Batch of 2 targets.
Target 1
Amino acid sequence: MGTERMTEIEEEGKRAFAEAGSDEVLRELEVRFFGRKSELTAALKGLKDLSAEEKREIGPSIQGTRTVLMEAFVVAKERVEREGRDWESERIDVTAPGIAEPLGHLHPITTMIAEIEDIFTRLGFDVADGPELENEFYNFDALNMPSDHPARDMQDTFWIESEGLDTRYLLRTHTSPVQVRYMETHVPPFRIIVPGRVFRNESTDATHEHTFHQFESLVVGETGDVTVGHFKHLAETFFAEFFGHKIDVRLRPSYFPFVEPGFEFDISCVFCDGKGCASCKGIGWIEIGGAGMVQQKVFEAAGYPRGKYQGFAWGFGLERLAMMKRRIPDARLFMSGDLRFIRQF
Ligand code: FA5
């Protein structure tokens, strides 16, 4: 078989592959040109019987024809596949609106903590925190409430079984224990805020939940540097920023063992501007939290010398503030896990 025959096969094959219109035809052509009984295969097999000179003469043309036809076959295969596709059924409308994945978002209390932290950090406050599982010393004793102190009954407590331990554990009833924890490791002057979750073993209603959030603040300096006047000004500044308009703060004498003098503080009603409405029961003021000048016994519990420092502490409930700002009727909604409520924020 000579090189002329190879050229003929090549031409014939190229034409046949170019004209092939279906998979079946292609399979037939594959057998015809590359199959065991094809002329090409026979020619390749026959090479071994040729002399070296003949091999040199005809070998390359056999190989060349095979390569050309293989390429023609691949091209034809791709073309047949492309032509056979139902492109219309595969059309993608890139302008069709997508299907939105459901997205979660921050809990309203979390958002409010961030908002309040933002206001205080702009005023130069640091943010501190402490454990929710607290021990008796920090939650009570260090705050001037030894175990026989009647004030312990003011906050109904979830006690943790602590048998065999060297101290009794509980779920903290307020954020005030962080005052002592912070002072143990810091030297005045400082100003901090402490947002946190607290727990009380009490029956619930629209303004009482067993699990809620408090915001504590503590400002301490050398004796004479920090006064009740500073507290009132700070509270008015904070609440005005928080509600977006001027707010008055008033103090009423009250008792908390860890402050002396102690106060409860009210803000002018945010709904009627102090004129008197249903929300403030016609009084014009709304009760917000507790405050006072830090008891020297608390400084002593934290390891400070008596009389060297002076400061104020205050704390308020976050749910009650959120209820006021967003007009939410029930404190129990926040921890209810009801997504219909959460999704509104
Ligand atoms: C305290 O917890 C003091 N630690 C606050 C304090 C700090 C006083 C620093 C002095 C100096 P009281 O028990 O009143 O105080 O709680 C403070 C606030 O938490 C209340 O004014 C109220 O807004 C909120 N609160 C109390 N109990 C609940 C409850 N069960 N559900 C929702 N909010 C509550």
Target 2
Amino acid sequence: MRKISLLSILVILVSMFQSCTEKVETDLTKTAFIPKPTSVTASGGAYNLANAKLIYVQEGAEGLLPTAEIVAEKITQLTGTEVEIKTTNSTPSKGIYIAISDNDQLNSQGYELKIKKYIASITGADAAGCFFGAQTFLQTLPVKKAESPIYVPTGVVTDSPEYAYRGAMLDVSRHFFNVEEVKQYIDFLAMYKMNVLHLHISDDQGWRIEIKSWPKLTEIGGQTEVGGGEGGFYTQEQYKELVQYAADRQIMIIPEIDMPGHTNAALASYAELNCDGKARELYTGTNVGFSTLCTDKEITYQFIDDVIRELAAITPGPYIHIGGDESHVTAHDDYVYFVNKVQDIVKKHGKKIIGWDEIANAKLIDDVTVQFWADVENTTLGVEKGAQVLMSPAARAYLDMQYDSTSHLGLHWAGYIEVDHGYNWDPATLVEGITKENILGIEAPLWSETVTNIDEVEYLVFPRLPGYAEIGWTAPSERSWDEYKTRLAKHGKRFEALGIDYYKSALVPWEE
Ligand code: TNX
């Protein structure tokens, strides 16, 4: 008995000594935030995360509850203790507080994070701002479960994004990714304050969304993928589940039906969509530009009307992407006629249009966004016609480009994109004649010809994705590769803790 208590006293003494010798970080400006916030000031103290047993959410702002739940879950993972969520109509003095800000100086999607000794408060210009502020707070925490108390440096972060639209694309057609995998991809975007997931849900190799009025699209067109694997598709219920999961993380899903080219899966499912009335074979290769819908058949537009109607009904966001790229076997006039008609259909169903830069060759209705990927002429033509531009330059922002000639996944038709090359550009000055006023935002697409599962996706996405998130969020005057790479280096451990298989670029001074 006596011996045991002596031993326990010794254990207590040793652990006290250890915690005294562990340095508590009190300088908030040393935190490696990505994307880099507009302003960070330190106040030199420390907030003990043990105070975070309660998260208060402003009463009447129930839209903030998903943010509170995500923060609570993370804290529980790190501390092992349950975190309770409550609504309140007064500002608490202890815990975590999430509320819509009454500071009307905050820009849309902006927030203030104030960390004091007993309370961390996140006030956003809107629900999105609150979520982004919460992500900033989460980046102050250790990456793994800790045995000793967790301290967070005190101070204030004031922040808002450079561009309203910060996205990534996932091609689920060339290879299919299931609901769980797409949720993981959404989590990646959420960590870095990206707010758009563009889902490329139809292409030559696979049709991936249930359309109830055209069931063979998925019964036939969804049954394979590049390399001949079994493919797959989302039921409308599953798609809605993804939309909700994304919305809880302030991410909007933009679905893309690529047309008139990139449509072999549809042409294999319904013979009547082909000009010759003959169904095509399913395709599992990686060529592009060989398929086209029949632009002068009435049924083509009935088909599109049905698809867009069903898709618009389950897509709460304002946009539908109509593709329009690489329609090499559609005659120019037919292409223009087709894109004109499709714009009217999308508009009729209450959605705004995004299309790859080729669509600028058509007449553009109001409120169209042209996604620049390769052709400067097309894009400037789009701007002349009044379109906004979404910046996805293949040579800088394509997540499926290899890092260098040794990369075991990816393509290199637009060049190699090492981590610095992916980071070191400014959307507002990259293309002559396209300035910030024309730009809606930035998007990094991941085409999936060479990636078959989420681990392979991770290798191409990390560590480039945080860089694209920062380009979208942080003013160019505040960004430099030399400084960014030291922050990125500190995220390596974060990737590891999350089980992310990332590319350990030799250009980044990763921390051991
Ligand atoms: C070009 S980018 C494509 C895609 C391919 C991609 C591969 C664009 C609008 N079209 O069909 O998957 O290259 O990098």
